[in-house]
What we know:
3 helices; 2 domains
Amino acid sequence: MKKKNNLINEHDYTKLMIDTIRGITPKVIREQDENSEAPSQEPDYNAEPHQEGDDVITPSDNDSNYTGEIKKFSDTVDPRVQVSKFKIYPKARDVQFEGRLDSGINFFMSIKAMKLSISITDDNGKPIKIYLDSDLISTIQKLTGYYDNWSKEWAQKLASEYKAK
């Protein structure tokens, strides 16, 4: 009997996820009103702010961690990426990776926030109207999958290779 109840709960949970997705879709596709102010380009990522003086490692463009991460991202998500931030915070046990795809998708990943944040803007940071097509949905799915793998990998690296001093 318990198995049957679990199956019903899983079914109900699946229905809830689908309903949630359907409820979010109109919020994703929206046109910015001409008279309203554009939201700040820097969203609140729910990650603790880090001071640059705190135990921070900013890998150089030639660093193997940086080049390896860019290669993995390019191979997995999209080769047309502009990375704006890649920092390691051993004391805070966090890694942050931020950038923009040529498709207009801005992304921010943080181990500590345990989230992937995306926004879609033009080059000036103003929200833009988008049309969801299979390519854009595929890119967002790849970005989400990449984040899942990235967060696990860096959580392990922070625990073993970047121990706080």
